[in-house]
TrEMBL record:
Basic and acidic residues bias (residue ranges): 1-14
Protein name: Histidinol-phosphatase
Chain segments carrying region Disordered: 1-20
GO molecular function: 5'-3' DNA exonuclease activity; 5'-3' RNA exonuclease activity
SUPFAM superfamilies to which the protein is assigned, alphabetical: PHP domain-like (SSF89550)
PROSITE patterns, A to Z: TAT
Organism: Paractinoplanes ferrugineus
UniProt-listed PANTHER family: EXONUCLEASE, POLYMERASE_HISTIDINOL PHOSPHATASE N-TERMINAL DOMAIN-CONTAINING PROTEIN
Record-annotated Polymerase/histidinol phosphatase N-terminal domain positions: 91-166
Domain of life: Bacteria
Length: 570
């Protein structure tokens, strides 16, 4: 499939998503809408696609060009790749340093490696803890600012890994500025799980988590910082992020709480014992505990092709959120603490409890074959479609869901758009994370262009993409039970085999005439390890395989995933 096509062209040229319907324009009061637009606005609000916060992530449309995702700013690319009108900036939002109790590297160590391995942006996220809340969040800032000066081609954010009260961990980070430390410090000291009373009930802790997200939103509204984002980390690792908690985080403020890790870091932990740790990819080797959500299956405690069960299962938890119409995006990262094949160790004489950091690492002469992490950028990438090389553009791209992710440099780049059938104008089409509106009965189609990999990755081989899957789900609106984690109407609707030796892939897939709201997302694989998905072969015939603890070489099982595009009838 160098240039495979699966379509029935219908050369109607109706709305392409560049114009916003009255129902979506919140400046128009309900009283001035037609009855049909009032009904439509009610549906969108109920589906979570309209209202406070939602407009900042999915339906923001300050102008027709931006509504269609057609930003053509061409500032400094900083290593970014221009495709589809965006600078695709690769990054990692989950990285630890000597200011974390279980890590060891300087900020500059992580940043220099990440930049050398092709990253354009990264976030320093040391663990929330007593030491970090009191000492580390301030002490790390001069190191971050120095790194920004040293590496001007890398955008270095300050954040932290939040111990979510009653749940797992999350990346929290803010736009750089004079208040970045003050906001993060107040957030951590007030809302981190390590700072909560041991007598708190589960309900109290869940409420504190919601309050924390709302606090971040309030800091943005008060212009203390120019942006703040939340992404839940390794959500299925211990089974303690329940579906209702995830929904509640998102609903607390969708302009802050935007998604979760589609795949965890710690991917080197799966390398077999003869050469590595011999554990589980992502350290996903757990079993249910008293704190776990009882409804999750045992398979959820393992990765699938290196990806979290919530993302990897077609028709599973991620799809259940998308089927509600909720803007909820996926990312990947390194979660780098101590890195595979490194030859350093923590500086001697360190006193973390007193100083909130370890002394600078020193050369050990010993190769860390049992370390579970890769350097940032070495294996996983979160690729963000940005309008320029800037902190704001990266945050805007993440918030808008213009994101695709991959492992092992499986592909070089992609551009996916939903269009009115037959429309090939350069300035039309709705990209990843977007919402296209067309009149009911209009024929729409997906256009996908992939640049295949032609240079070796950091394991010294050229990855080969063998199959691309088109996944479609019906938007059914709000669920009655917030602990729902299935989307029965979502399935793989088409798979394309990639021709051996192809350099690019171009696909057109027809959705036919629109009769109900839906979304589409994409997935691709090297084809080395597949099995039917948990929902059965009729839903996902060739999905990722359940990773085996002790025998899960991450380089032999590569995938990419995209975030969704929604298609809604007017």
């Amino acid at each position: 499939m160098g240039h495979g096509h699966d379509h029935e062209h219908d050369h109607t040229h109706e709305a392409t998503g560049a114009a916003v319907s009255p129902a979506m324009d919140l400046s128009i009061p309900d009283s001035e809408l037609s009855p049909s637009d009032v009904s439509r606005r009610g549906f969108l609000r109920g589906a979570g696609l309209l209202g406070a916060g939602a407009a900042a992530s999915v339906l923001a449309a300050p102008g027709a060009a931006e509504a269609a995702g057609l930003s053509h700013s061409h500032g400094p690319v900083g290593g970014g790749r221009d495709k589809g009108g965006f600078q695709w900036l690769a990054g990692d939002h989950h990285i630890h340093t000597q200011y974390s109790s279980d890590a060891q590297y300087r900020v500059l160590d992580q940043a220099k490696h990440g930049h050398a391995y092709g990253l354009d942006w990264l976030v320093i996220t040391d663990h929330g803890s007593n030491e970090h809340a009191k000492i580390g969040v301030e002490k790390v800032n001069p190191d971050i600012r120095k790194t920004r000066e040293e590496l001007k081609g890398l955008l270095t954010f300050q954040g932290l890994e939040w111990n979510i009260p009653a749940a797992e961990h999350a990346t929290v980070f803010v736009h750089p500025g004079k208040n970045e430390v003050a906001v993060l410090k107040q957030f951590e000291q007030t809302y981190d799980g390590s700072q909560q009373p041991a007598t708190n009930t589960e309900a109290q802790n869940e409420a504190t988590a919601i309050a924390g997200i709302k606090f971040l939103a309030a800091q943005v509204k008060a212009r203390k910082v120019d942006g703040a984002l939340f992404l839940a980390n390794h959500p299925a690792r211990r089974g303690i992020d329940s579906p209702h908690e995830i929904r509640n985080w998102r609903d607390a403020d969708p302009s802050v709480a935007i998604g979760f890790e589609g795949a965890p870091g710690h991917q080197a932990a799966g390398i077999p014992a003869a050469y590595g740790r011999g554990g589980a990819r992502g350290y996903y080797d757990n079993s249910p505990s008293a704190a776990s959500y009882a409804g999750y299956p045992l398979e959820s405690y393992r990765t699938w092709g290196g990806f979290d069960w919530m993302t990897a299962t077609v028709g599973g938890l991620w799809d259940s959120l998308l089927a509600e119409g909720k803007a909820w995006w996926i990312t990947v990262n390194s979660d780098s603490h101590v890195n595979y094949l490194d030859q350093s160790e923590r500086g001697p004489g360190s006193d973390f409890a007193t100083n909130g950091k370890y002394n600078d690492p020193v050369y050990s002469g010993k190769t860390l074959t049992t370390a579970g992490d890769f350097w940032p950028g070495y294996y996983g990438r979160t690729n963000v479609g940005a309008g320029s090389f800037s902190y704001k553009a990266v945050m805007d791209g993440l918030r808008a869901g213009r994101v695709w992710v991959d492992h092992g440099r499986l592909i070089k780049g992609l551009d996916a758009r939903v269009r009115v059938a037959g429309d090939r104008r350069w300035n039309t089409g709705t990209p990843l994370g977007g919402v296209v509106q067309v009149r009911r009965g209009t024929s729409t189609e997906l256009t996908l262009d992939i640049d295949l990999q032609d240079v070796p990755n950091f394991a010294a081989f050229v990855p080969v993409l063998k199959r691309v899957d088109v996944i479609v789900g019906t938007v059914t609106g709000p669920v009655a039970d917030k602990d729902t984690f299935k989307a029965p109407d979502t399935k793989v609707v088409k798979s394309y085999e990639v021709n051996a030796g192809a350099r690019t892939v171009s696909v057109t897939y027809s959705f036919g005439r629109l009769d109900k709201p839906f979304y589409v997302r994409l997935r691709g694989t090297d084809g080395n390890r597949t099995q039917p998905g948990l929902m059965g072969p009729g839903v996902d015939p060739y999905g990722p395989e359940l990773d085996v603890v002790g025998d899960a070489d991450p380089w032999g099982d590569l995938w990419f995933y995209t975030n969704p595009i929604w298609v809604l009838p007017k």
